[in-house]
Amino acid sequence: MTKLIKLPGLIDTHVHLREPGATQKEDFETGTKAAIAGGYTLVLDMPNNPDPTISETAINEKITLAKNRIYSDLGFHLGVGSHLKGGKLNVDEFQDLKDRVFGLKVYMNHTTGPLLIEDNGELDLIFSNWPKDKILMVHAETETLAKAITLAKKHGNRLHVCHIARKIELELIIQAKSEGLPVTCEVAMHHLYFTHADEERLGHFAMMRPPLASQEDQDFLWANINSIDTIASDHAPHTREEKEGKKVVNGVPGLETTLPLLLQAVNDERITLQRVTEMTSDSPRKIFNIPEQTKLQTRDYLQNAAGRHLKG
Ligand code: DOR
Ligand code: ZN
Ligand code: ZN
């Protein structure tokens, strides 16, 4: 007997489609094809391109490049850095750019791409300037996560913590939520299915940021899955040659494997189907203020807010 499961089009709020600047790994066309193949109808692209997405010009370039080449809906996140204008952070442009993106991504640890903010004064400036009604996402591992939560508390930000991987990180988030802070978090599939015991077997293919964690960490994530708001792929492809090379390149693809693994988890009774729908559709929509993907709204979106250029 076959069982038919009906799901909404899934939303992945955390993908790296690599265009422009690294299209040997992925581009808007191949990335959104992978999204559709994996059950996603909307993906939100991260800003850590070689020339990072930290200006109006960079956002416009992504929109132009994606036009008529995408298979799923697509939106963008803004980055923050001082790669332009003689080393000045792009905080002055936050107000003008906020409605053209779904959120701001702050890289507080080193990873793929040039975006990294470690200076406390700069972080203070960023958290205080980003509009309080828009999501501020962080790549913040363990110690830096405590710092991010303190900053969000100080400045009143809506904080969304990307790819939590460790018990201590989820504990910090549970604590922040219990204080009533507007903090949400995401987990990536690889941290729910692999641990660092897999690194020996998989070599560089198991290298990503945050790195794989312990079995205890993973067990804690599964046991507290109801305290995690969203599941993202953190789809971050590299070429096979790059992965097999001497130099470590961090990141793994995930758009085509996340839903099958989630359905496996439902089958194994680790998570309910209703929770899967919440974490991959209802909650992303609510947290990132994403409208229903009806034809009418999609068209309105194209006309009114090019930056949120959902496909018509
Ligand atoms: O492993 C990762 N890869 N972690 C990140 O934070 C970035 C990503 C990428 O863009 O390759
Ligand atoms: Zn990250
Ligand atoms: Zn990422």
Task: Based on the model shown, name its key terms.
binds (4S)-2,6-dioxohexahydropyrimidine-4-carboxylic acid; globular; 6-stranded parallel sheet; TIM Barrel; binds zinc ion; alpha/beta; 3-stranded parallel sheet; single chain
Q: What is the CATH superfamily classification? A: Metal-dependent hydrolases
The proportion of residues forming helix, as a percent range, comes to: 25-40%
Quaternary organisation = single chain
User: How large is the radius of gyration?
Assistant: 18 Å
How far apart, in Å, are the first and last alpha carbons? Answer: 38 Å
Q: How would a crystallographer describe the biggest sheet?
A: 6 strands, parallel
Shape: globular
Identify the CATH architecture. Alpha-Beta Barrel
Question: What is the structural class?
Answer: alpha/beta
Count of separate DSSP helical elements: 13
What share of the residues does DSSP label as strand, in percent?
5-15%
| CATH fold-level assignment | TIM Barrel
Quantity of strands, as a count: 9
